[in-house]
Fold these 4 entries.
Entry 1:
Amino acid sequence: MNIPVNFLEGKSRIKILFVRSPRHVWPIVNESDNFLLPLAYPTLAAYLREHVPGVDITILDCCVRQMGWKSLTKYIRETRPDIVAIGEKTVFYHEGFRAFELVKKEAPQAVTIAGGVMYTALPQWTLDTCKAVDYVVLYEGEETLRDLVTTLRDGGEPSSVRGIAYRDADGKPALTPARPLIENLDDLPMPAYDLAGMDYYKPFGHLWPKAITVQRSRGCIANCNFCSWRIQEGRPQLVDGKYVSHQAYRTKSPLRMADEIEWLYRDFGVRYLFWVDGTWNADHDWLVEFCEEILRRDIKLDGWWAFVRADKLVEQDAKGILPLMVKAGFRHTLLGAEHDSQQSLDYVNKGLKDYNLTQEAFRILSEKHPEVFRQATYITGLPDDTVDSIKGLLKHAHACNLDFAAFHPIQPFPGTQFYDWALKEGLVEETNFEKFDMFYPSMRTYHCTREEVAEATQWCYKNFVAKKPFQYFSRMFSPHPIRRDLHRWFAFAIMRVILKDLKETITQGSRFKGFSGIDTLWKPDWYDA
């Protein structure tokens, strides 16, 4: 049996450590932009600080501090935290496991708590796979983490804490009943940005300079069947021994959000916002009040980046709200175009009634607000995709007059409806979650092999610029600074990938992949240090 000994019982002061462990980087993105602030950590830290007495909280982001595994080992050995909490994405789940195992070796008295999208999606698997994990906090973590810490300190039974996975008396994974969501997000304290080491994030960055992550809402107004984000922030329910997530959407008030941003702007020197909301432009009235408040307070941001929906953007233009958004700081839009047909959008449950609205939204931005960088994502490798249908997405991207288009093979992320369906259909051929990197497909289609999906996806990337080179390079001299700088950065990043691959081909005798090198995560120099 592997039942954790409760070393927290009766302790008057508890040292809590939130960790983002060392990891590889996306080659197309500058290293500093790879590692934006993991907002969940200061959010959870603020709630614990306010509601649990006698806690000393540290947020350790190894990535921005360039702390490799040797440095992290030394840190854990010297500080001996009482609780270590780690949340992870699917592709980096193994880095989290490695960190948990390190903790149990160097500080065996520490309680280890997993959370976030990957461990929430597969809680029993997490406990079975990594014996160094003691508990999994499922879905929304503030109240659950508070109750778990308090219960352990008081010597209570973990089974009394709602919303966790733990090991029962027989050492088998068990789930407790779901915890209700926090309905009023204004009740949450401001994220503990003061604990986050803000100077590590804001001084540099090519894509998002002096940027910090912010969030106005939880959940999403959409119900896309492939989205693990929506699952993580949805309304959980325990059904027949398994958690399921239902659509839910909550938002902070405009004034509360303006207070948060003013604090970041005035006290921390933040000048660029990276919104991590599933649909930032979900409601018109909220945007009007928020943008007017930002302008009234004279918060002069360089800009902000946001996920938006096409139908909402078209409506906001018709209502005269879009110019206000741009005036307040809207400078970089990422819109999930997904595919080029209504049938495909309906298949992924996008909820967009007319796929032509995507092209219309980008036409509006192009003609009326050229200072806004126009980016879209496309999904390749849907079950009915062929090589020709994937390559056809490039035509749609050019018709939208995009500044940058990202083409990603669909990944059946654990916990999503699409994951369960794709497994049942027998389409999933890669089951190692480390490979779920959104570059190389993990599943075939009814008509294509994984290799054919990958090649067609790469063709779209290569030809996005190659088909219209003069258009792209002319934008490197745009009068609008964010669009100009982003075009220059992407050109530099692509050339850097090609040159790095050429060097490795010459010095190591590896196969030259050229532009295809963007689908391989890079190991930073400091990773093992």
Entry 2:
Amino acid sequence: MIWGTVAHPQTRSPCIKFAKFVFAALAAPWLNKSAFLHVLGNQNKGNAVARCNRNHEVFFSVGRRQFLGYTGAGMLAAVLPACGNDDIHPTPYEQTIALGQQMIQQAVSDPSKPVAAISVAMVKGNTVVWQQAFGLASVPGQIKATPQTRFNIGSVSKLFPALAATILVDRGLITLDTPIVKYLPNFTMLSPEYAQITTRHLLSHASGLPGTNGRNLFTFEPVAGYAADTQAELANSHLKHLPGELAVYCNDGFTMVEQIVLAVTGQSFADFVQSAILVPLKMTHSSYLTSVPSSGSFSLPYVNGTQHQEFVNAYATGGLSSTPTDMMNLAQMIYGGGVFQGQRIVSAAGIAQMGTDQTKSLTINPSPEWRWGLGWDTVVQPALNAAGVPGWEKDGGTAFYSTEFFVVPNSQFALLVTGNTGYDARAIAETLVLSALKEDGTISSLPAKLGTTAPPVASGPGIASGAGIYGNSDSPYQVLANADGSLQINQWDADTRGWAQIGGYRYRSDGWWWSDTDTASYRFAVVSGNDSEGNAFNFRYLMKRVVPGAGYAYLTLPVGQQLAALAALDSAWQQRVGTQWTLTNDSPSAVPIAVLGNPPAFFATLAELPGYVLYGNEDLRYQLFVPVSDTLGGMSIKVPGNFGRDLYEIRFASTSAATLTIGSSIYARI
């Protein structure tokens, strides 16, 4: 069994063969590479989206497509201790701490979805006012977690390449807006526009890189060379959009910062961060696991009766192992304008750049509430914004852990919560941060929670143009326009190789399409104009709106792009339909191989959308590819946010080749 749960991969919004949709706040019927990778990104934002794809939560069980099983959910509650190992200073936040203890203890003790361990810390000014760990760091050893127990914090790690880059700017070694080919002359891609990519693009998800190199991302032993492997993979890839055209969550951009740091300093990224950031910040319980650690306390996944240590080999994008208390030192430096305990770590201008909205110049941005910073998921945190308070947020996850980090710079306040997947980290973090701000008088009252009940039916616009197939990086959507003016929304299902109904929706007085049973609502958005190359575009997106976290703010994002039918597939591609393929070059210690096994990928087609091929498995998810030639299947969509996050190309050496490549992964025909 695994102690902690991972979300249904079809819920993903926030990767590739490791990726696509895992939102650690949801439980899932299975764990896949897609899930593993996706949680490196905005999994908790996606949690809300995920919830809307499946209006129920299913926990690990053994069966078809379900390989991680509880032998009895009640057993977890029996072995989890009460909250312990706390070190609470005198504080004005007694109510918030009591609320947090109650919420977290409930999460680790809930027999329906138990979590092995959760750790939290909160800082005000220069004082850590709360640090506490709950549950077990080692399930078989019955070892309690303490505030010194380290967790893999996933994409919260992205703040460190952003800091590294700003330090390099301070030292005059790079600028954010210089094309990275100046620092990486051997970097190349098949799209000539790769030469326009800047470090700012890399750190704000606007580079156009395909998404995530899933090969050997999560393993049970350290695997070196991930960043170099990613750069080599990109040499055989096209961009998925022009640099700066849109922002879609992209792990590979941060991995390329590793290569820049190495090129301009001569130090590996892990060594540079250690010497330039972790040591001066006195983060003595934080590091990248480049080798098997010989000391320290770690939260350890317990999988199918065996305890492991998780290694995240994509250091810059998600590889830091840390504690909430260590991360409070980082928070003090951030709201201290780059200074920690009298020592300047980075310039105030660098911190300001990280906290600046990077989305204002995007050409395609149908979800303007997504306010990417440099490294930050948002520099206008929606729930805090609803309370009138500026705040910055970064979330993250790995195959086994889920983390939320909030910094409220004007209030000199921060909180980080981390733990085994299976709990809603964002809901806990939003609730506690707002509670603390109310308790210390920053805000007079909490913002109103948003309702999820459908408003009255209203007379709607014509919807015939919205009908059709919408592609994304997960699995296609189908929109049907009914004669009575309602919509039916379906999603392609791998089990049946057909369409599964999500629900029927009617136009409502707020301008969105609702059902009476789904808390999500939908509408269409059309974005048109000319790109930076002067080419006209006109994209129709299916938009989804949800209320994530603690329920104080809406989140909207495009979940698919409408696609037009193409000419019929030629014989080379027709002959591939129905064939199956197996991954051949992951490490045996890779988590998805060691835990999931190696499920075959397959080719299929959609009768409703001629001219495309559908390829994937539980790991890759199911993407629609455009045949570019008999040996190349290209990307078909440009979807911002998360639902276009990890796109691939399929390459064959010849029309009769018995192997294919996706990124740096090689698949052989079965």
Entry 3:
Amino acid sequence: MKSIYLATVLLVLVSATFAAPNPRYNPTTREKRRRGSSSWSGRRSLQPRDSCPVPEDVAVVAPKANPFVSLSQDEIDSVAMWLHDPAQGLNLTNTSSATISLSDNYIWHVDVLKPNKSDVLSYLDASGVVPRYARVTLIEGGREVPIVGEYSVGPLPISNSTRKEALDNIYNGPNGAKLLWSAGPVDSLRRAAIDSLMNATLAPIADLTNDLLEMAFYGSSDSRSTMIYFMQSPASTDGEKSVFWSPFRRNGMEPWDQPSDLYIQFDITGTDASQWRSMKVVYNLEVYDSVQAFYSAWKAGNVTKTSPPATNIEFLYKNKTGSTRELEDRMAPTVLSLDGNRFKVDKEEQYIEYLGWTFYMRFDYDVGVQFYDIRFRGERIMYELSLQDAIAQYAGNNPFQAGTAYMDRFYGIGAASVRLIPGYDCPYHAAYLNGSYATTNQESYSQINSICIFETDIGTPITRHMNPVWSQATKGSKLIVRMIATVGNYDYLWDYGFYVDGTISVDAHASGYIQANYYRPDDEGRWGPRVAETIAGTLHTHVMNFKADFDLVDEKNSLVKTEIVVENVTQPWFDESFEMMRYNISDVETEDDGLMDLPANGQTMFTVVNKDHTNKWGQPRGYRILPGLSNVVLASKSSPFFRKSGQFAKQPIAVSRQHDSEPASSATLNQNVPDAPLVEFWKFFNGESLVQEDLVAWVNLGMHHYTRSEDIPNTLMSEAHSNIFFAPQNWGDTELTKDLANSVMMYAEGADNEIVIETNGVEPPSCLNLGPEDSLLGVFTVSE
């Protein structure tokens, strides 16, 4: 065998530490130039190493100012002042007033109104101007028929041309941009009234609750209260009434997992809290017509006591227990950018560049981080990629769990974002951005370091091949933009990935504490197994809807359906017919066919293409919508709690025409009006053409949560995971990584089969300790 290794990599290691010098190794000047200078010695800790520098950010300035920025405090104040002006005739009460009541009109939220796509494209691609407006939510309890209404106020800054108009143009529900007051948000004023009702109901029966539940309630601010209540969501169907069931749990660490067996129904309809009342009671699955009837039955000894919530809650603690696993005293592997970050961030404009990718971001109170003007190699792929809502539908053998259907946008996913933990939530040396939004207290707020940005190895090469003549491998990497929100009991992690090959991914993970059920042996695990002394896991489904507004080259795109069909064929070169597969390619021509299921066995591919722009081979340039792990939808399609409000979560993929009047598949105020939501998603699909039009794909991630003992104390993100990909499909003339320098090519050259190792001048930094097994020497050889 003849082998000449033209690689300075690991020469010092091989010659000085582990082996005798290779007598054949005598690199020429040409070979040194080909390899470039290198300080990669490959030693582990056998001699002092250079220290790795902290990655330095490379400055970048966004080409244009971000058109999606949140309102400043001055803008919020000016809008509030304008609304309070008697000239507007709104009769608003200041929320800081000591005499404010449920029957007053007041401001609940002032936020930026997301601009129309047509205005933004005119600004980004030409010299247009993006008008700036505020989105205002007013709680109008002083009306003859009290409502909660959404309005636009603008243009900003405030001037003589500023107007307030109902946002009926973006809400297609039966009541436009308003809902009846009883279906509105539970703000601090309404919450205080509910707390008074709870105190008036429960304090008089404290002897009963102390006996049956071993806890009592005297008001949320009373130190004697050892019990806490929760409100069922949704609490209404159309706003005509607001009636909810409340479970009662031990007040302490993570009450989600300390439920009792008591449920009380309450009617809180209307702005007159003196008319609110308790209704039915369920205890031990026995139904009582009133609290008084329940109390009387208990006094008479006719109530069978069930086990109260466990008082030993060590099962909820996450502190380390048990002996340390072998070698677990060493730090776990982590992602490091030893040569410095390969991405650039304009923090002021929330603009990012990474290996051919560019995009803007915005942060939203309702849903958190969103992405705009996503381009790869200078060409726009998507105008928008954004979370729309995250919902959860529960089941269970009690009135609270059976009637629970959360729409987390209602609670403010962005507002629930958390400061990320370096080294745990995000790798060390990640870049961080703040999430800025307007609170419901009319304040501009920034959650520090709620978004992290880092590059990571995808765990595999992006391409590779080895044969007797040559060998190659290209490193696989992607940029991750991550956000985590703690919405009540659950922590949701969203990763948006931008791969070096032009692929975009969205990953969703969940952790936190399950909303446990009270354990009853007679349930026989039909809604979840027993996971602790007095609790059972609860069957539920998470669905997260995302908007992907494709603009492949321009806004004229089509949706192509490529099916794999199997048929019997007869061919002259075979003696008998046999089954063979082929493509059946067709356009999805109209929105009538835009609500789509995923066929069995993955035998259908959906591709957004631009027929007016082909690659070198005449193929329409496009991107594939590629379902990944656990793309689930709601199991129950006709539940009354998501009847119309959850239509977006009832099919894996939907594709519609883009309209500025259809900016979102859900709405913040949809939670309590499943029969009369502000947005009815299926109304988007009204027969319009999908051929060479501006298309939006609405895709779902999710998990059917089959609860288990391993959910205690916290759900594991390894399993609670769902993702989807948007991958190039004939977008280029070849695959899109041939311009990457982080690749190696090895081949034989010349009569003596001298081995050439090309790494394009990219070497591991000198601070990286490497061993002999990390050497490229000898990986590729040629046999004579």
Entry 4:
Amino acid sequence: MCGITGWVDFGRDLTRERDTVEAMTDTMAKRGPDAGGIWLSAHAALGHRRLSIIDLDGGRQPMTAGTTALTYSGEVYNFRELRTELTARGHRFDTRSDTEVVLRAYLEWGDAFVDRLNGMYAFAIWDGDELLLVRDRMGVKPLFYYPTPDGVLFGSEPKAILANPLAERVLDTDGLRDLLSVAKNPGHAVFRGMRELPPGHTLRVRRDGLDLRKYWSLQAGEHPDDLTTTVARVRELLEDTVTRQLVADVPLCTLLSGGLDSSTLTALAAGTSDVRSYSVKVTDQPGDNLDHVHARLVADHVGARYEEILHSTVDLLAPSVKAAVLTAYDLPIAKGDEHASLHELFRMVRERSTVALSGECGDEVFGGYRWYRKPDAVWSGTFPWVHSGRSRHEGLDLLFAPDLMTKLGLREYERDSHDSAVAELSTVAGEDALEARMREVTYLGLTRHAQVLFDRKDRMSMAAGLEVRVPFTDHRLVEYTFNVPWSMKNFDRREKSLLRAVGKDLLPAEVLSRAKTPYPSIEDDSYDRILRDRLRKLIGAKNEPLSPLLTDEFPEGRLTRPALETTLQLNDWLKAYRVRLVL
């Protein structure tokens, strides 16, 4: 995995800026605990922190070839095939790493090399007098940038950019709107002046400016295969993807929830290697969530070694955990208990393994969420998960000043964001209205909803130095399934019909027939009471950074947990990150 950062400035000599570049690089230490390095030239500086996965002794970065330098994060899973092709073209390799393959591929094919990569990645290449930033097709790995008068700053996380004095820590109306909305718009990064490189894009930085280019996107089209052929093709793609993603020179495991997605991946992995699997169990959690029971069933069925990672509600409420989550994420979040739970799970998994396979994005690829099957949500004219009552700003109108909420116009913003997303898709001639809308809903899930999950997974895992791979995001699988008709994805009227058919010979019957359950969140009422008490103190303080934006008295109306979490974390974030409000 790793963390990258850098600075291009055509107006100054960056060889004199080592201290600043080191400070930027040091912010990525948890992403890359094994090694670090910087590379300086007159107008470009690259920083790297390494989490060693493949070729532990080689692959150190930044890596150079002549006047070309690379700082790289992620994994390219087809690096062996590319290496063979490049060797045949006369390239000679000094390491076994995929990093060197990426560098040599660029030298051989130029910008077109991105079309040949299969993986999750974000990297920067300085080629003598210009910079190329690249992000993977699905946006699994993050990459932020901050234009300056004479160049650009960039990094895997905002904190790397903010370590440079040129970057201002300002939150304006647009940034606050992004924070409080569930509409994640590609390219937005909350801090004023900062941007996130959209998935499937490159950014070229030259003396005369910045050039953003899209090199990949999902395209609507007809699906030529029948159900039997489709199931076989999906199985083939998944088998190949899992096999590729099992390559590592360090201990590897699967994150096994007992749901269909992670169970299928674990079964496929166990068929080719000795697999360890881990799941989370909240020891003092009431309710009937039986993830760990089904996870053990799967592990026993496929022959995987299995262990439950235990923590309690008290663990997740600890101020140290809350602070660690905020530091890892760089932004306030709406579902603090889920992020805290993942943070602790990943921390404890990292004590046992360095790489983990996750079922993330299976619901977006195969249509697993409940809102796929709710006509009122599907046809709501906005993001279906918003209509289904999971809007993060539900209750915020009771906490924030009415004139501010009117100015933000969150509902209108989300509808506009929905409409602009849908407009990105072309239509298929002769397709009926339901099939067309379900393709739109799938597109929203893959390009908007999944991005929030990728952010959560990336920040929480990399805070522990754990690489989490996501086989369901393989672009070949996503491209193929995207145009599978909804009638085929839902052929037996159950969620993820297609994936159930793919895994019917792999999994126990109890798991195949199990309905989807969400990631376990805290159900203890004491958690909400503690949040309310903390918020009551915040509103009463009057001298906190957020005080000017809040109502004068604690509202007694219904407040959702996301509203409580978001408000409390927003205030903590303003203080911890020294953010200036300009609204």
